[in-house]
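Side project, low priority. Logging it here so it doesn't get lost.
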Amino acid sequence: MSSRLSSAHCAVLRSAHLTNSCSRSLSTRARLIDLVRELAQVCDDAAIVGILNRLGYRTGNENTWNEKCLQHVRHSNGIPACPPAEQRNWVTMSQAALHFNVSLMVVRRMIAQKILPARQVVKCAPWMIERVHLELPAVQKEIRRVHEGRRSPLIVLNNSQTRLFTDSSEV
């Protein structure tokens, strides 16, 4: 019985394709397919389903996403499943942290300071880091600093900021 419901659900999805709860336009469907294509480079289907549901996307039947319908969308649009971790051209922040043997915060800081190039496709999606960027000289230098226990220099955004604490030599 549940396979019939799933088949009927996916049949509706095939005819209506993809919709967003706010809009049924072709551009929304195209954006959703592009989003799935981007996310499939670093996320498995379960993670993509979670992201689509958090963003409020709905299937053609106005239901929340599940893995079976996502697999149908991927298949109908020629989007391959996420390859195994070692074969990916892109990695997540967590995978980069494991690669470098550092904390997630170190990777997050390198991204914020523009040392490590990364992009986030949408708000709820993981940050995507191109694997070749893990070998950039500036990135390798920062990782060496972290492993040696040295802190990177602070970035001062505004010279007019008042200090919270004063140096004892300044008093």
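Brief comment: The domain at 85-147 is CATH 1.10.1660 (Multidrug-efflux Transporter Regulator; Chain: A; Domain 2).
Revisit when time allows.
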